[in-house]
Amino acid sequence: METTTYTIDATDKALGRLASEVAALLNAKNSVNFVKNRVADVKVTVVNASKVKVTGNKMKESVHKSYSGYPGGLKERSLSYVVEKKGYGDLIKHAVKGMLPKNKLQDIRLKNLTVEE
What we know:
Radius of gyration: 15 Å
Structural class: alpha/beta
Oligomer: single chain
CATH class of the domain at 4-54 and 87-115: Alpha Beta
Shape: globular
Distance between the termini: 30 Å
CATH architecture of the domain at 4-54 and 87-115: Alpha-Beta Complex
Strand content: 15-25%
Largest sheet: 3 strands, parallel
Helix content: 25-40%
Number of helices: 5
């Protein structure tokens, strides 16, 4: 079985719309051979991640959460802080992860995603 590669240009695309498009491709929903319990041979590359469109006051007001699993381990950071420290790639990966099914295949599918600033 061959690997299908997709390249998506993030220039002037809204973050959520881009993430839902990438999640559908990683799930292989557009494929004739779609099976929900198997990871498809799909590689998705997002280019120009730094040109993604984040509208309104979301950079300051929207919250990026990460939980360590320990009591008091919830970290809430604004999107502007995440972009400053880790870049737009982490922002896109976090959005795509939220749109993938919550099962054992989620992390495997996320490894097929590469984001280029």
